[in-house]
């Protein structure tokens, strides 16, 4: 299609969406069209040298100003480039540059769809990955975090010799060789279905050079040492974080010790990106103060709320019986913002009913246990923090003064934890230690004296411990901030507390358990057990990955976790 901007030149003009124009000019023509973005690719086809230009405009209106009639032309049906130059190996990568331009999401998605059409029209097609009636290559999972980070899992059959190439192809045409990054492991679950064959599973976590937006269209190509090449389609991309976690977290246990933990590292790479993306936009949305503001609070109490917001009523009914709360900065932080209206009006009524001063904060999105507590610490007005779960209830008034006094009389203290009880008066927590797991995947937490009666002599003495539970944890605010608070790399509510305590030990502090303070803990009523167990598997692996050497030293330090004359340090 000739253009007045190109004198004595043959020009092809194709709109890839309403803001991105492809110009291909022969016989040395040059463009003078003003545009926001411009990329140039010199090509030579069978006729003559060609100048390929990719022009991007900030809006359709800007495109219309630069090229009168652009709106009408861009609105027409997309014209597939079929000329020889469109099959050049550098052509599609060149077009993908526009995926990184700052254009509206709808236009970027339209661009991705058209790049997919171009990919299909220009790529070499290979036979399906089936040999002798049996599958040769299969893709089980493709998951994406954001637009560039991809987790892929599948398997191939050991025939035709070994694989010399395994290439993932995005819907937009980006090719990534996986053999250099993937982790391999046996797939014994497939072998019974195809007796006589061996199957090799693989996982791969990698980053694309350009965004990929489409859910369908991923392909895998395999090439074996005897020259056989085949391709297999992938299932739709998992974009929802919870669906992706459900599909990927079991891969932590694909490799049994003592094999290298390559698959787990791939899972960690993807999950850490999910966590980072989840927290990029996490912030305070709204804050309300009910009751008179405490002028000089002695303690800031940070209580996250998630799902079971009715628990606030039970807590405040108990807190109202204790006059010590008059000197406390009480902060509830709602981590399930869809419940904000209910929490706001209910909390106002309860504050009036019990004559309590408190703040209620709404997060703009669910951030998880670590993020919401870190936010609460940043809002705290006292120099001393109490991190408290919403399902913890006091056994009697006076525990606040006891806990503050116990903390202040111990120089060098890091975190302080009380005796936590189940509803039947058996002990849930009397400090926390560690024990090696039976499956060889690191270290699990060991709540001391769990299941014993609340009056057990084993739990009757204050003592230094490796860690205390975050269900009720007192710590100096400046110390909490100095060690950077809770690690937000964990998934929602397990092992963040022991990670904090281990960092306090490394900072030269001592964590303490004190039995004089007793509270009831309903444990996990707002955290569904299946979801918690799935997340805890990953958190345990991450915790062990970070702290195995330190924990081994702690475990070997003393014959008994109940020693009262031992300084426990990392």
List keywords for this structure.
570 residues; alpha+beta; Immunoglobulin-like; Spore Coat Polysaccharide Biosynthesis Protein SpsA, Chain A; 3 domains; eleven-stranded mixed beta sheet; four-stranded antiparallel beta sheet; 27 strands; 27% helix; 28% strand; disordered N terminus
Describe it.
- It is a single chain.
- The protein is an alpha+beta fold and 570 residues long.
- The protein folds into 3 domains: 112 residues, no CATH class; 149 residues, Immunoglobulin-like; 286 residues, Alpha-Beta Complex (Spore Coat Polysaccharide Biosynthesis Protein SpsA, Chain A), CATH 3.90.550.
- The strands form 6 sheets. Strands 15, 16, 17, 18, 19, 20, 21, 22, 25, 26 and 27 form an 11-stranded mixed beta sheet that branches.
- Helix 7 runs parallel beside helix 8.
- It is globular.
- The N and C termini lie far apart (73 Å).
- 41% of the residues are buried.
- The N terminus is likely disordered.
Q: Give the CATH class of the largest domain.
A: Alpha Beta
Write down the Rg: 30 Å
- Low-confidence stretches at least 5 residues in length (pLDDT < 50)? 1-8, 562-566
Classify the fold: give the CATH topology of the largest domain: Spore Coat Polysaccharide Biosynthesis Protein SpsA, Chain A
Summarize the model shown.
The chain is 27% helix and 28% strand. It is an alpha+beta fold.
């Amino acid at each position: 299609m000739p253009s007045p901007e190109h004198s004595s030149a043959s020009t092809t003009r194709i709109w890839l969406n309403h803001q991105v124009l492809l110009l291909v000019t022969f016989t040395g023509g040059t463009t003078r069209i003003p545009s926001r973005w411009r990329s140039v690719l010199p090509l030579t086809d069978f006729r003559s040298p060609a100048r390929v230009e990719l022009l991007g405009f900030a809006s359709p209106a800007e495109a219309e100003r630069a090229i009168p009639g652009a709106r009408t032309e861009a609105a027409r049906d997309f014209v597939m480039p079929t000329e020889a130059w469109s099959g050049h190996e550098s052509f599609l990568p060149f077009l993908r540059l526009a995926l990184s331009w700052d254009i509206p999401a709808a236009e970027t998605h339209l661009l991705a769809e058209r790049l997919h059409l171009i990919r299909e029209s220009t790529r070499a097609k290979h036979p399906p990955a089936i040999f002798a009636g049996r599958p040769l290559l299969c893709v089980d999972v493709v998951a994406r975090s954001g637009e560039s980070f991809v987790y892929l899992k599948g398997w191939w059959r050991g025939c035709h010799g070994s694989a010399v190439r395994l290439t993932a192809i995005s819907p937009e045409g980006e090719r990534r060789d996986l053999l250099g990054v993937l982790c391999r492991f046996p797939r014994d679950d497939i072998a019974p279905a195809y007796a006589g064959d061996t199957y090799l599973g693989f996982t791969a976590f990698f980053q694309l050079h350009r965004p990929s937006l489409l859910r369908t269209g991923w392909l895998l190509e395999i090439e074996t040492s005897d020259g056989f090449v085949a391709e297999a389609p992938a299932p739709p991309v998992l974009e929802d974080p919870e669906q992706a976690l459900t599909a990927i977290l079991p891969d932590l246990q694909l490799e049994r010790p003592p094999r290298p933990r390559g698959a787990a590292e791939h899972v960690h790479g993807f999950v850490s990106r999910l966590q980072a993306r989840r927290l990029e936009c996490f912030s305070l949305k709204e804050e309300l103060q009910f009751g008179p503001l405490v002028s000089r609070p002695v303690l800031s109490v940070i209580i996250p709320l998630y799902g079971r917001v009715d628990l606030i009523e039970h807590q405040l009914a108990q807190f109202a019986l204790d006059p010590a709360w008059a000197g406390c900065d009480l902060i509830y932080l709602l981590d399930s913002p869809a419940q904000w209206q209910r929490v706001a009006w209910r909390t106002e009524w309860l504050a009036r009913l019990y004559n309590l001063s408190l703040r209620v904060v709404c997060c703009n999105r669910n951030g998880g246990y670590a993020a919401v507590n870190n936010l609460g610490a940043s809002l705290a007005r006292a120099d001393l923090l109490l991190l408290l779960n919403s399902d913890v209830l006091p056994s009697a008034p006076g525990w606040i003064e006891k806990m503050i006094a116990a903390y202040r009389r111990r120089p060098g203290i890091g975190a302080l934890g009380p005796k936590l009880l189940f509803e039947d008066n058996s002990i849930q927590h009397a400090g926390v230690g560690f024990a090696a797991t039976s499956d060889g995947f690191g270290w699990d937490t060991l709540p001391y004296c769990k299941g014993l009666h609340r009056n057990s002599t084993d739990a009757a003495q204050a003592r230094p411990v490796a860690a205390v539970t975050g269900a009720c944890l007192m710590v100096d605010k400046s110390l909490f901030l100095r060690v950077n608070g809770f690690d937000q790399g964990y998934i929602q509510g397990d092992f963040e507390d022991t990670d904090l305590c281990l960092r306090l030990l490394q900072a030269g502090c001592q964590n303490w358990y004190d039995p004089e303070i007793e509270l009831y803990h309903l444990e996990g009523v707002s955290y569904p057990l299946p979801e918690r167990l799935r997340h805890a598997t990953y958190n345990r692996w991450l915790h062990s990955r970070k702290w195995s050497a330190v924990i081994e030293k702690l475990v070997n330090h003393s014959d008994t976790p109940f020693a009262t004359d031992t300084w426990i340090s990392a």
